[in-house]
Each structure stands twice: as C-alpha cells, then as structure tokens.
Design brief:
about 0% strand; 2 domains; mainly alpha; two-stranded antiparallel ribbon; about 400 residues; single chain; elongated; 2 strands
Amino acid sequence: MQAPPVQFIFDHYYGFLNLGLWGHVAAALVMVHITLIGITLFYHREQAHRSVDLHPVLRHFFRFWLWMNTGSVTKEWVAVHRKHHAMCETEGDPHSPQIFGLKTVLLRGAELYREEARNRETLDKYGRGTPDDWLERHVYSRRPNMGITLLFFVDLFLFGGAGILMYAIQLTTMPLLAAGVINGLSHAKGYRNFETDDASTNLWPFALFVAGEELHNNHHAFPSSARFSHRPWEVDMGWLHLRLFSLLGLARIRRVAPSPELVEERTTPDLDALRAILINRMHVLRHYSQSVTVPVLRREIEHLGDNANTLIRRAKSWIGRPPGLLDQVSREGLVELMDNHPSLKTVVQFRNELRELWEGAHTSNERLLADLKTWCARAEESGIQALEEFAAYLQSFRPVPQPAV
C-alpha cells in the first residue's frame, strides 16, 4: 500500500540542505533566535520605544523575517504594546495577568493580542510612526498570512520532512514565549529591581531564550532605554546584538537608562540637582529600599533569627508594589507589620512622601525644590540614622543642567 504523502516526505525527502538531526536542531534554534531578536530590536526597541535607530537594510530584513515567521503586522504589534505601557495593570491593558488572570494570559495570550489588534481606536492612537510604505500597505499589512504560507514551502524545500516539524516550532514558539511567558509570567512571578507602578518582574536567567525581554521590570522602569540589563549577572542578548550592530554601523543607540552621579560633598539642592533626582527616581527608590527600609526593618526584627530574612523578603514585596496590586492578606500583613514597628512605619511614610514629590506633575519646579528641601530637613531631624544618611545622599546628586533651548 502506498504511504501517505506526509509520511513519504518524511521517509524520502531530506531537503536541499540535507542536514542530520543536530543540524536540524541548530537550524531551528537559530531561526527562532533571529525571530526573537527581530521582535526585541525592531518591533520593541526601535518601533515602539524609539530607543534605537536600525540601518534601513537591517530594518527591512527584520520586517520581512517577522512577516514570514509570525504573520504579525508592525503597526498592530507596536500599538498593542504601547497601550500596555499606557494602561498597565488597569482596565484597558490588553494582556495584564492582574486583569485577566495568569492562566488566561499564559494559555490565551496570542488571542488577547489579536483581539486588541482589531481595535481600530487602539491602532489609530498608539500605532503612529510605524512604517507606511508600499510594501507595508500592499504586502505585509494586507497579506500577513502569505508570509507564514511562504515559510512552510521554504522550510519544506530546505529541510525536507523535518521542515514540517520546524515550521510548527517556529509558529508556536512566539505565542508561547512572547504572548505567554513575557506578558504573563513577567507580570506575576520573578524578582523586581525597581519599584514601578505595576507588577512587572524579571525572569532571569532566560536571556538566551527570550533575548533580554525577560528583564521586564527593568524595561518598565526605563521604557525608553535600549539596554534592559542592570545588574552584573543579568544578560540582555538584545543589547549584545545591538552593540555588535552598532560597531558594524548597522544601528545607532539613542538612549540608555541613566545612572546617578554623585559629588563627594553634599550641597543644598538646586533646580538642576532636582532634575537629576527626578531623572534617576527609580534608582533613588531602589537605594532607599536598600539603605533605609531593609536596615531599619532588620534592626527591628533581628531577634527573630532565621525567620527575619523571610519576613524581610515578604515586607520588601509588600512595600515595593502599588497598594492596589496587593491582595487583602498582604495589605493586612503590611499594616500589622508597621503597627508593630513604629520606626518602619516612619520610613515607609517618608518613602511615600518622597514618591509624591515626582508624582505631582502639576506642581512647579520651585515648589518641588522647596518640598525636597523640607523633606531632607525632616529626615535629618527624624532621629533615624538611615534616614539622615539618605538625606545626605539626595543632597550629593551631581546637577544635570537644563538642555539648551
């Protein structure tokens, strides 16, 4: 009896490249990696956040590759992602686990994306500035399914019967890693470097698989930064590729996250120093947690012995997240903890007041500066050494001059 067509292909056709088992494995990994690099560099860092400028050759290559490997449209991807940042963890966020539930985002993340991509209002408001040339209008946007159909025949020609399996891997990896893991787990599990106003987390050490996108909390802290890694052990594969492309003249890095610059002797803050503090506010909050909150809490509960570290981790999680994202048990635990430890309650109140300084966008610079000076004076008079030292830290920021007009 004659074998079915698919079985015949597997048994008798090895493809133009005629690779062995490990050759097919390597080819599949390389192609998936190129797709991830295309998403993080072209869709995400260049188109959505304008943190880099890719060379036209590289930009066109990624557009073609993503059209063929994902069937997605640049404007749709960018619009959905920008809306996610604009409405993160609130009603309107296209794929927040806090809204839809982690299980839904993990299993139906691609459906959530497609549903939002059909929203014309989202595309018009958040999709501006994306490519709008002849290819985009007549090929990539109009016929997205043509790309993944072309991919099937390319895989079949190059890899033979194994190409059918590789085709399936290419089409399922992106919904799993991007729509599921990044949009789901990176807003539910993992660690946080920065106290952002959302639930974003980092999922290290998955950099080789997700091209740096797993450093999601770092990205939400500094959305316009081309580099996602901040700690020495964090690896951002997208950044490593960017550095290489930059050396080859194929990319221009426009922005990276700032780092605080301090002077040896503290001075009375002026408007330029205030601007430096505001620019580095994510670093300021992180330093506050490390140099004030944790030491004060540790001193208050050091009698607990080994249990102290567990309570510190729990307290950092409670304090470092917006109150609206805490469940009832966590909120009650935080209130009880502060009621039992007045010094902790004091430093948490000081921290909240510090955040209010830069959240008052309607306040004039002169009023912000006066409030900062008042905050520092109160911290110096608090009787809490960690707070006094932090006030000195704020007064040691190197001024950042206003840009020339």
